[in-house]
Amino acid sequence: MRYVSFRRPDGTASFGRLDGETIVELATDATPSLKAALAEGSLSALTDGVTFVAADIVLLPVIPDPAKILCVGLNYAEHVKETGREQKAHPAIFVRYADSLVADGQPMVKPNVTERFDYEGELAIVIGKPAHKVAAADAWNYVAGYAAFNDGSARDWQRHNIQFTPGKTFPGTGGFGPALVTADEIEDLNALRVQTRLNGELLQDQPVGDMIWDIPTVIEYVSAFTPLSPGDVIATGTPGGVGDKRTPPLYMKAGDKVEISIGTIGTLTNRIIDEQ
Q: Which keywords does this Swiss-Prot/TrEMBL entry list (predicted)?
């Protein structure tokens, strides 16, 4: 199944099931959001509502209001190599905030304080039920589904000190979408390639299976230090090929189009605009 969060024509937030070129609304007064449906465990039992033409609907980030967005840094060996960093024994974890995310089809915002606005194509997972101190062997039971993610990064701000967060969570700098895709839509997750294109040029292209720390390991590690709730998001890291490490460096600027494709999970597309 594929689920999307969106705005109705009257502007109110809703969610539904993406069926080809249509969206079947699933929201009710009791279950107004995709996050609420995950928390209730009611997603598969909700009754179909109004059907909308997908092309006429404005999408929201897959989960518009996650309580936690945790990001894994340096999770592909090629990316570790290009940064010149030492491979550590544990995942590097940093955070983003919900207001840093935009949906598929919406513009990502280049902050005025940087000229080093970089792309990072990633696979994101969405947590489907409360998860605390989860063993890796049980971790798949806590995954509701997957989406594409662009961890847009102000590289200079990222490196003001040893913590990444200041460069990672400017408002409107990250893309998340288009849909929450459940496991039944995916034949072999590890074989799917995380691909980033900037203005049509392929710049990142590695399979999910190249991760240093796989998804169960990441869930075990993260849930050991913080309880996870339905709707929480984990971005699992970017492959090699980031713009900051190219010669010459290649950064996103106003007017650019960036696309993150992950096989059957779909393609996240965003234009870049300057901060107003």
A: Hydrolase, Metal-binding
